[in-house]
């Protein structure tokens, strides 16, 4: 798994947009009491359920791989000239 130069910032953006998308789609249980680990998993599972990303094999579903999958998702959404893509 190759790490992107701005992976931390991209993950933060993916979390923000993923949470906003989840709220618009009516997904509940995304209050601030949950940990970031839980939020990453909820967003990942929601995007898989919505068929916006392909699921990882079950034996690869761990924290770093879930985060990386969210980063790949947000990279696909951003224009090539976005500041985080440079």
Characterization of the model:
The protein is mainly α and 86 residues long. The chain has one domain (1-14, 27-77): Four Helix Bundle (Hemerythrin (Met), subunit A) (Up-down Bundle), CATH 1.20.120.1930. It contains three helices and no strands. Helix 1 crosses helix 2, helix 1 packs across helix 3 and helix 2 packs across helix 3 (63-77). The longest helix has 18 residues, at 7-24. The radius of gyration is 13 Å and the shape is globular. The mean pLDDT is 88.
Short précis:
The chain is mostly helical and 86 residues long. It contains 3 helices and no strands. The chain has a single domain (1-14, 27-77), classed as Four Helix Bundle (Hemerythrin (Met), subunit A) (Up-down Bundle).
Helix content: 40-55%
- Rough shape? globular
Number of helices: 3
Mean pLDDT rating: 88
SS elements, strand count: 0
In the CATH hierarchy, the third-tier topology is known as Four Helix Bundle (Hemerythrin (Met), subunit A)
User: In angstroms, what is the radius of gyration?
Assistant: 13 Å
Residue stretches low in confidence (pLDDT < 50, at least 5 long) are none
The CATH class turns out to be Mainly Alpha
């Amino acid at each position: 798994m190759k790490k992107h130069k701005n992976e931390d910032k991209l993950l933060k953006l993916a979390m923000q947009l993923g949470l906003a998308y989840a709220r618009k789609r009516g997904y509940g249980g995304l209050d601030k009491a949950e940990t970031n680990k839980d939020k990453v998993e909820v967003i990942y599972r929601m995007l898989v359920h919505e068929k916006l990303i392909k699921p990882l094999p079950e034996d690869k579903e761990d924290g770093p791989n879930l985060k990386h999958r969210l980063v790949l998702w947000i990279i696909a959404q951003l224009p090539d000239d976005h500041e985080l893509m440079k």
